[in-house]
Amino acid sequence: MAVKVTTQAALAAKAWPFEEARKLVARLEARKAAGKPVDGVLFETGYGPSGLPHIGTFGEVARTSWVRHAFETISDVPTHLIAFSDDMDGLRKVPENLPQPEMLAANLGKPLTAIPDPFGTHESFGHHMNARLRAFLDKFGFRYEFYSSTATYKSGRFDAALLKILASYDKVMAVMLPTLGEERQQTYSPFLPVSPRSGKVLLAKVVAHDAAKGTITYIEEDGSEETVPVTGGHCKLQWKPDMGMRWAALGVDYEMYGKDHLSQAPLYTAICKIAGGMPPEQYMYEMFLDDQGQKISKSKGNGISLDDWLTYGSPESLALFMFQKPRTAKKLYFDVIPKAVDEYIAFLDAYHAAETTDEQRLENPVWHIHGGQVPDERYPVSFALLLNLVSASNAHNRDVLWGFIRAYSPEPVSPEQNPGLDRLVGFALRYYQDFVKPAKVFRAADDKERAALEDLAGRLEALGDERDGKIVQDLVYEVGKVHGFEPLRTWFAALYEVLLGQSQGPRFGSFAALFGTAQTAAMIRSGLAGEFLK
To answer: Long-range contacts of range 262-271, CB-CB < 8 Å, 24 or more positions apart?
Structure first.
């Protein structure tokens, strides 16, 4: 469903991508006022290809793409997005869980594009990881241009900026040295020569630099001196100066980075200015935490991967998780997936609601997630309801669940007409089997709860084949009040713990309407008979 977007509405929208987009509009206006050309806006995202693309890569490119789309909504200035791979970096340690670790260890220090591919499918390690990145980005339909650091350095695209850095060597050192320890200050240089002898990217001491000749002289690994040009891929910059130089050389207008870059951002900005560029608009996003509140680390493996998420939840639910509060640290572990899936469904329902205005739709995350082309599909049941339905019915296949859904839904539904819902059914079956079922702990009802449950079972049977969740929920409330549960949440806790083996769950009336009132009554009687405790 498309929205009629007016420039006025987009300029007033409060969603964070629009706030970022307006910063770019102001940037262009300042550029025009200074008499500089405005021929496009360049967005950039960076990728370190020493490891496989991961969930953070998805988040950074997705968030940048949402800002790009918001900008395109309020401006007709052309946009471009560069996915930049730092594949000229020297390999400093052998990544875990990759084949041929001995071969990789023998090539430590060399650029990633100069190391053989441990998988044996591409020209080099770097080329393999770049292919993985591009396939990863293509899978999600991102619009981007791919840049290789190696190719860009060797092509001469960075030469002019590198020569400016060399001509301002002392200025660059004045920026960098205060950030380093005393020992590192003695050997630091912004330039890392690529040794013509070993092919390694060397953290070498530079003993001389010649701006007129465009060269540096450094100490080789054997203690001798070597002179190389800083252009043409014979040198690369240390990662902090490299970021600022790249901004200047490419003319980057917008870049996001994680909180771990925040303290370095003033350095990137300073180097960009030294290299003759205008620093881009920058956006810091918070890091992800595991279930213990610790920062997620690829080396520790204390989090979930992109494939993990997509095993149990939709890409749209992951996108929503990335969209919401990007500047707030969030726990990223398996328990957040069902909530994200159901929040996506709720936002989708709100977007399509008849009373929702186009202005409100611009604030809805699904408008951004789907690039303004929001699908019309509806979800008559939530992920939480499906999980509990699997539990109560002991269903282990799609056909059984679809039988319940067809009986419950007020509109005709089918896997063919509702492919998103069919995917949700598959997610629910897998998530229940792997996470919900192993954690179930049933308990027996006490005397008060037993009396209330017996009453509820009788009343449910009397309802016949009632499918209105509100009517059933009102009945559940009434039974809880009649039997003196105060507050009523203790009554619902008893329902969940005795009947479902968990501490919380969906609206019980909606669940009973979906499962069937007669089937729910039978489940209550089984619970009271102690069958679940077995």
So the answer is: 264/240, 267/175, 267/176, 267/179, 267/240, 267/241, 268/240, 268/243, 268/244, 269/244, 270/175, 270/244, 271/165, 271/172, 271/175, 271/240, 271/241, 271/243, 271/244, 271/245
- Tell me the sheet residues that pair with 201: 194
pTM of the model: 0.91
Q: Is residue 346 part of a domain?
A: no
Rounded to 10 deg, the angle between the 125-139 and 55-74 helix axes is 50
How would you classify the pairing of strands 330-331 and 288-289? parallel
Are 220 and 204 in contact by the 8 Å Cβ rule? The answer is: yes
CB 111 within 8 A of CB 87: yes
Pick the last residue of a domain from 439, 455, 476: 439
Contacts of 363 (CB under 8 A, 6+ apart): 13, 14, 15
How far the first Cα of the chain sits from its last, in Å, is 50
72: Cα separation from own chain's centroid: 22
Q: In sequence order, which residues have a C-beta less than 8 Å from that of residue 150 and are 6 or more positions away? A: 87, 88, 111, 112, 113, 126, 233
Distance CA(42)–CA(462), nearest Å, equals 65
Q: Token pair 């009434």 is at which residue?
A: 478
Contact assessment for residue 189 and residue 205, using Cβ atoms and an 8 Å cutoff = yes
Which helix or strand (DSSP H or E) is residue 208 part of?
Answer: strand 206-210
DSSP tally for the chain: helices H, then strands E: 25, 12
In the DSSP assignment, the letter for residue 204 is P
Q: Are residues 259 and 387 in the same domain?
A: no
Crossing angle for the helix pair 383-393 and 508-515, nearest 10 degrees?
A: 60
The range of the structural domain enclosing residue 472 comes to 447-528
Tell me how many domains the chain contains: 3
pLDDT in tens, 273-306: 999 999 999 999 998 887 777 776 654 555 688 8
Residue bearing tokens 């991508």: 17
- State whether 430 and 456 are in the same domain: no
Q: Which two tokens stand for residue 102?
A: 């001995």
pLDDT, tens digit, 9 for 90 and up, residues 413-452: 999 999 999 999 999 999 999 998 899 999 999 999 999 9
Please state the φ and ψ torsions of residue 134, each to the nearest 5 degrees.
-65, -40
